[in-house]
Design a protein that fits this description.
By secondary structure, this protein is an alpha+beta fold. It contains one helix and five strands; from the N terminus they run E-E-H-E-E-E. The chain is globular.
Length: 114
């Protein structure tokens, strides 16, 4: 089995649309991945939203809202939040707190039947 390799400067693959494979038609859900209070175990938590979205566009709007509104456990006393588009399916969120900076990933996912 082979995997794609990241090559700096290479053009990104276009986002799948329509029936481009398992899970490409949804239902879509929002996933948020963030650090678990510094030294706590497990070090990273992933929350998958319960709301299912029938289409990719609606799911992306929900992910954008989550990127603006979700409050992870760190950092303490948020001072600034920057949101960056991270590929076709999500966002990178950098949160600056009173004493530290953290980041989280907000993206849309669709279940794949094995």
């Amino acid at each position: 089995m082979s995997y794609d390799v990241y090559e700096p400067g290479a053009a990104p693959e276009p986002a799948p649309t329509g029936s481009d494979g398992p899970g490409s038609d949804g239902p879509w859900r929002v996933a948020i991945e963030y650090s678990n209070k510094g030294e706590a175990k497990p070090p990273t938590l992933v929350q998958i939203g319960r709301t299912e979205h029938a289409d990719r566009a609606t799911a992306i709007l929900a992910a954008a809202r989550a990127a603006r509104e979700f409050s992870p456990p760190d950092p303490w006393s948020e001072r600034k939040r920057e949101i960056f588009r991270d590929g076709p399916d999500g966002f990178l969120v950098v949160i600056v707190g009173a004493a530290s900076t953290f980041h989280m990933s907000v993206r849309i996912v669709a279940p794949v039947q094995a």
